[in-house]
Amino acid sequence: MIDERPISLLIADDHPLILAGLAAMIREEPGLALAGQATDGPTAVEQYLRLRPDVMLIDLNMPGGGGVEAIRRVRAAVPDARIVILTTWEGDEDVHRGLLAGASAYLLKQSTLDQVVHCVRQVAANRRYLAPGLAEKLAARVPANRLSRRELEILAHLSSGLSNKMIARTENIGVGTVKYHVNNILSKLNVSCRTEAACVALRRGLIHHH
Question: Within this chain, do residues 120 and 158 fall inside the same structural domain, yes or no?
Fold first, then answer.
């Protein structure tokens, strides 16, 4: 006999349309139940502690200390709280801070209903849910400041497809020096080839396409 009780959700977002859309979506979905709504961090914390929903969906950029602070406070009070970050952009630095603060997952606001339901079910079952590709991205995430200015310059060249020889010529340094920098970049970004380095760099905003 499987537990057919719907998963109760608290949603916190300061955009009325997103809140209304999520609320409508949750009401339509038989496996989910709407426990409450909040439009700022402190209210989200207060509601969570009062309503004790199975899962909280929370936007990070809200008034009153924002979502990261709210996640910290909820997790301090309820260590096994299940929290999903709502974000418009997966490169958001705050997403990483939110996951570190104790969120189990994040969802892009442009996710489909199926993705939301799947994510909520995973998190409610105490499994982490990472948007496709996020696991590798977090694994490959080292603080950007670990790359020196010179390494960032070489990374930019490398990402535009220049060979070591071309980079050496452009930067007026020896090919051996370029190789040395490239190897450092690969190990710092935790990737195995130049193409991956370029992808990670672009995703993390270390370089920008012109």
Answer: no
| Cα 137 from Cα 142, distance rounded (Å) | 10
| 110/98 Cα distance (integer angstroms) | 19
Based on the fold, state whether residues 184 and 90 are members of the same structural domain. Answer: no
pTM of the model: 0.61
Q: Is residue 2 domain-resident?
A: no
pLDDT tens-digit series, residues 20-69: 999 999 999 989 999 999 999 999 999 999 999 999 999 988 877 788 89
Is 127 part of a structural domain of the chain?
Answer: yes
Q: Which residues of 91-105 are buried (b: 16+ CB within 10 A; e: fewer)?
A: ebebbbbbbebbbbb
Torsion of CA 143, 187, 85, 66, to 10 degrees: 0
